[in-house]
Structure formats: structure tokens, C-alpha cells
Amino acid sequence: MAKAVFQSFEEKADPARGASRAAALRAELVRRGLDGFVIPRTDEHQNEYVAACSERLAWLTGFTGSWGLAIVLRDEAAIFVDGRYTVQVREQVDTAVFTPEHLIDSPPEAWLEKRLKPGNKLGFDPNLHTHDGAKRLEKACAKAGAELVPVVGNPVDSVWEDRPAPPLAPIVLHPTAFAGVSAADKLARIQGRLQELGDAALVITDPHAMAWTFNIRGGDVSHTPLPMGYAIVPREGRPSLFVEECKLSNEVRATLSDLAEVEGETMLDRRLAQLGAAKQKARFDQATASRRLVSLFEKAGGSADVGTCPVALMKAVKNDAEIAGSRAAHRRDGAAMVNFLAWFAREALQGRLTEIDATVALEGFRRDTGELVDVSFPSIAGAGPNAAIPHYRVTERSNRRIEPGIFLIDSGAQYRDGTTDITRTIAVGTPTPEMRDRFTRVLQGHIAIATVVFPKGVSGAQLDAFARRPLWDAGLDFDHGTGHGIGSYLSVHEGPQRLSKLGVTPLEAGMMLSNEPGYYKSGEYGIRIENLILVERREIAGAEREIYGFETLSFAPIDLALVEPALMTEAEIAWLDAYHAKVRELIGPLVTGDAARWLEEAARPIAS
Fold this sequence. Notes:
The chain is an alpha+beta fold. It contains 19 helices and 28 strands.
């Protein structure tokens, strides 16, 4: 079988090195006169995916999840994770060195208040913490009579001998045919928003916002086509773009120079200080602006308006070209999924497939489209009990043979016209009645989101319960959000829109989200059904308000072997039949041979 190109199955976690690396860090802290240090799993931009040189938490502890934070004191250390990673952290970390703590039950600030002593100095890297995040640490230190000390030069970097070099991937132009709106028009829109806010400038610290604004893409992190950098957009006049200049070809530099002053990243501090010295008020993104940049600006005399970045909402509402691109990408991706599912149906019952085999095969079918740029995240391919881990990532060590029961695969692709993310749960052999019951309840929740209509102004938090009701009726639930926002050839996880208890941003026409309720029986199996959806306007006779609903964008059969029709209403069965008819209509012409024959059977009407 071919190898995966865009994802690795190497086991990078090495708990055995935790003790020696923690000891080396402690020696460095003593040398600097510090009693402890905070190590977040992030970079200077608060990115979800970070470059290898920014994987400080993984290097120190062995933990490779997408969110976590460690605190190392002179005689104690802890690592904080959320509910997604409570199992994984104990498998990857030496718990004799780093005590696992739950982020909600034992927040880092509360943990520090109990352990810091008067006069202690807790170090932190102000490049890696937001302004608000640093304030929370300061408050905890103050309650304990300790001091939070910003460091110059991260002490982890001082003891990380083979630390990788920073990435320098080329910056490329994202064509207007895909972007839909020119960078000049986007900049004019941002400047108009600054007029409304009363800010003299916007400091763009989120690379996603920078990439969207200037219609550029890059390759500085895995799975998201991001160029690292910053920008300053004044309310009036010419913007400045700060990127490593060796990333720019002559063509790209010329195009960007028509829009902005293009300077090296090292010039950012000087320009911020000049803006501050002019006593200006500037907007900083509360989610991505580092404490160091905000402090630098304020110390120079500026007034920092720390709040929501206006680009986030602009980027979240997709224009006609982005929507058309997403539809094309999903149709292409749907054909790859059908080819994979047909292949899986042939191979799985022979008992030779593993989770890695399935992951490699699906990536291969996507590469066969000729349009794949990358996967949008490492595929979650879980067999049996591994499917019950919502954010499971298969490695050579964890790789499990696919046996009778349930197999779950959550995967996505980056195409230049769109980003995809889809999950299918597949029966291997004959599922148990309990599996069919749970799957059908998850499907009912999925259908409830797919068919809901709601007035303008409603947020994802108000819709989240629709997906949970069928599970709640049986005393069941799931512990993740129902859906996240999606970028346009950008991050597979994009805010501020989300279907979640925390999703307070009102949904607007043009926003894209995932619809992915699930159910997980620890140690046995897991179920998730995910399609991407688009918020669209709906016409309802006699409606007194503007009404929205969702268009489904993802197309691949939902496994009928796991459906229990007796649990479903006529309307739910009608939705499933109509969805499968649409799959046959859109994907049927794109597949041939065994895949075409498999599709006709897999997407048949439920009563046939």
C-alpha cells in the first residue's frame, strides 16, 4: 500500500525523557532566579497548529494534544488538559514528573494560588500569552504574594539543544477567483470599520486574518496554509505588512507592495513604538495579540483597545466565490470519500486492515483527485475502543486492527477552492442493537441541526441542544461542541461562529460550520456523524423576522446498517432518503466501476 504524504504515524511522545528535561529546565530557572515557569502549548499567534520549533510543551512533557499547559515549580510540576485529552495525557506523560490536572476542575490559576509562596517569582514568556491570559496569571500570583515575571528568551529554548529552526515556507498569492474579493477592497472595508470603532489602527496578530486580508497563503504550519507574520492597518493611509522577506518571490513582493509597506518581522516593534509614541489608540485582537506586543505599545504611550478583531467576523461570512469553491471542493471530496468507503466495504471484513491502512487509503483517494494540497488535520481513524476517544490520533504504537464492530473516520482536505471536514461511522460486520440505537439517536440529532430554521440573531449556543435531545431522551450526551466554524482554504477550525454551549456569536448567512453530534462508550466504541453546513436565508410565508437555515455541503452515504428506522419519524426518514438521493445525483457521475455500484446500494432509500 502507498504511504501517507501529508500525515505521519510516528509516535513522538516520549515520557521517559520527561524527568531529565524537567530537571534541565529547573536548573535554568534557578540560574535565572525564577521559582517556576509556565509552558503553554501555543506560539506567538495562539495558533492551533504550530511549527516544530514551537512545540515546547511536547518536547518537555511528551504530550502532543492540540491544547495544554504545564507549570514547572522547583519541587512540583503539573500539566493541564481539557476533557478531550484526559486519557491521552496519561499515556504520553511521565505522571511521576508532571501531575495531570483537569483544566475545568483544577484551573492553572487556582493551582498556582495554593502552591506559590510569598516572594516567589513565576516566569512566563510574554510572547506566548495573551493580554487577558497574563492578567489571570498576575492575579493568581498576587493572591499568593508572588510575582509574575516576563522573561526575555524562553528558558525552554535555552535547554532544547536540537530545537528545529523557524519555518520559512514561500508566501503565495491566493487568486481573486477563489478569494472572491480583492485585497484592496478588504483593506478598505477594514478601514471603514476602524472609523466606526474610533481606532487609529488595527494590529493584525492572527496569521489567518493576515492571510485573508492580503489574499496570501503559505506553509509555515502543518495542515493550514498559513504564512506567519503581522500587519498594521491604519484608519487612513497605507498599511504595513511584516513577514520574513526571504519568503517573498519578486512577483509576490511586487503585488503586496502595491497594497502595503512590506517589511521584515523585526520592524514590527519599531512601528508599534512609533504608533504608541504618537498617542494613538489601536485595536488589538484579544484572542491572538501577545502580552508583549500590547505592553510595548502601551509603554510607548499608546492606548490599546483590546477586543475582538474585526477581521474575524468578515472572514467568517463567506462570499459567493468562496461558497461556490466550497461546493466544488465538497463534491470532489465526496467522490474521494465514496471511493474510500467502497474500498473499505470490500477490504474490512477480510480482517487484514488496520487504522493506518484506512488512513493511508483515504489520503490516497484524495490525492487521486489531482487537487489535494494537504489534509486539513491528521485523520482520526478509530477502531473499536479507539473510536471512543473523540480526538484520537493513530500512531505506529496505537495502531489497531479493524475487527467486527464500529470504525470511525474523521478527516478532511485542503483544496485551493475550499476546506473540507467529514466524519463517517461504519459498521464492520453486524452491529449490536445498542450500537444501532445510539447511532440512530446521533443521526436524529444531526438531522435536527440540518433541518432547523431560526431567526436572525440566534447563536450557536441556542441551537446546540437540538443535536442533543435524542440522546438526552435516553439519558445520554456527548462532551464536545456540536460544531465549529470552517475557513476557506484556511483553518479547519475557525471562529467566532460555532455550534456549542459557548457559541455566543450570532449566526449570519454565509457562515460555514460543522454538524457533528456523537456518542462515545468508553473502552468499547464511538459514533460521530459530521457534515459541513452553510447558513442561508430561508423564505417562510408570513414570517415576521428574517429567517435562516442550513444547506448541507458534504456528500457521502451514511451507513444504513447502523440505522434503526423504528426510532425515526417519517420526516427524519424522508430527510435521510432525500440526502442519499442528493449524494447519488452529485457524486454518482464522478465515480465508476465497483464504487459506482457500491454507491447505488449504500445510498438507496431506507425503505427499499
